[in-house]
Amino acid sequence: MNHIPARILAAPGRPLTRRALAKLQTRQRVLNAAKALFTERGYEGATIRDIAAAAGMSTGAVFASFSDKSDLFNEVIIADYEATLDAMREAAAREAGTAGALSALFTVAYEFHLAQLPLAQAGISVSWSRSPAAEQRNREGLRPMIGLVSDVLSRGVERGELPHDLDVRLIGEMIWDSYLSNYRRAAYDGWALEALVDRLNDQIGVILAGSRKAA
Length: 215
Fold this sequence. Notes:
CATH class of the largest domain: Mainly Alpha
Order of helices and strands: HHHHHHHHHHH
Helix content: over 70%
Largest sheet: none
Number of domains: 2
CATH topology of the largest domain: Tetracycline Repressor, domain 2
Number of strands: 0
CATH superfamily of the largest domain: Tetracycline Repressor, domain 2
Distance between the termini: 46 Å
CATH architecture of the largest domain: Orthogonal Bundle
Number of helices: 11
Structural class: mainly alpha
C-alpha cells in the first residue's frame, strides 16, 4: 500500500500539519463515497472511477490515498470495525454476567451491520480473495473486537462464573465464528435483529455450558 493510514496521520500527541490534515480529509471523502457505492452496488459493481466522481475528485487523487480498489474496500470495512468498537465496549460494560455482556456487544454489531447488509455481505465474500497483506491488515483491525470478547470471558473466569482453566482464546474464537456465520441467515433468509440475537444467545449458551462440563 502506498497511502498513509489515518491512525498514523492522526496519532495522539502528533500535531497535524496542514498537509497531513488535507490528506486526512481527502482520505475520508474517498472512504465515505466508497462506502456508499459499495453498499449500493457491491464490490464488483463499484468502480474507482465512480467512487472518485462521487467524492468529487480525480481517480489519481483516489490512488494517492489507496493503492487499488481492494485496498480501498478493506479500509472501508476496517473503518466500520473502528466505528462500532466503542459502542460494543460500552454495551458489554453495562452487563454483569458473561452471557449478557456477550449478547449486548454482539447486538450492537448486528444492529450496525444490518443497516448496511449488502456491504457486510460483500465484505464476507471478498474476505476469501484478499491478498496476504490485506488479510493481515484486516486481522489487525479485527483484533480489538475479538480481544473484547476475550476480555468478557476473562472477567467471567475471574468472577468464578466460568472455569478457571477455560481456554479463553478458543472459546472466544468459537463464539466469534458463530456470530459471523449468522450473517448468512440475515442475507439469505431475511432474519432481522431479534432473530439473529436470539440464535446467537442460544449458541453462546451451548458453548459456555460445554466449557463448564469440560472443566
